[in-house]
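Quick log. Single chain, no ligands specified.
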Amino acid sequence: MESEVIHRAGVVRVSGKKAAWSDYLALARLSHSTKHVFIAPGFVFAYLLRGVQSDTLAREVIFGLITAVCVASANYVINEYLDRDFDRHHPTKCQRRAVQYEVGGTLVLLEWLLFLSIGLAAAAVASRTMFFVGCIFALQGIVYNVPPIRTKDKPYLDVVSESINNPVRLLLGWVMVDPATLPPSSIILSYWFGGAFLMAAKRYSEYRELVASRGRDVLVRYRASFAGYSEVTLNASCFIYGMLSTFFLAIFLTKYRVEYLLLMPAVIFLFAHYLAMATRSNSTAQNPERLLKERTLVLLIAVFVALFALTTWIDIPALSVFLRQRYITLR
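-> predicted structure:
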């Protein structure tokens, strides 16, 4: 038996076949593990600023990665299950397993508990701080996805709450190196607003494409938060989040190593290029797991990494002028 979901563009037929074990495993989106690359800056900053504070660094890294992958997968499991009736209105997400097949709520709950238990157990073995960060990661998945809170359905709050994943990954990387401290608040906030920029750009891209192809009513049925957005407000929010991210980043760079100010042009170009990507049809911004296939983006990231390496090892005393009060005298 098939159920039909009507779109403006036609009819999407959803199979009533029961899900197999492979379909349940697909709910965990293990292929999205590439997103954990955002852990790397936390690891690098902790190493440069604090040095290795753990005698078992390799163990911390291994258990930290297990924590990241498993807790993220637990969040994905409940995400796909609870979104299945909404994803039917999306042109590509309607192909997800929870939409295409009948999945049992009890098995989904058990899968969520399994991934969550493995992730938090690994975090507890690593350190108390890692366990604390892992719990924040798991709580984010509940707050974002599960009614009655379900911040996913609330304009602006959806972006701010989803992007918490960004600083959480930064914390995971940092704690692998130094479980006794946390990163400076400036870099945490920069990472958070940087994640908000990425999530807002994703929604901006979805809004432009789905409104043009299927109409705003279908878009709102896919995600209720879109009722409170427009193309203009989404574009403006991208600008605001990007500005806030670079503002806090500049504070961090100036405070901890002034040479890092030379990274700012590369960062600004990255933000600009990503927003330009979001305006394209079928943009990669809608599928962040495919970002590494964007050649220009990868090139810009490579330039940023090269500049970061140079400014880490080369001192430029002349830049200290930005740390002192100076005035341009006319006479």
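Confidence is low (pLDDT under 50) at residues 1-13.
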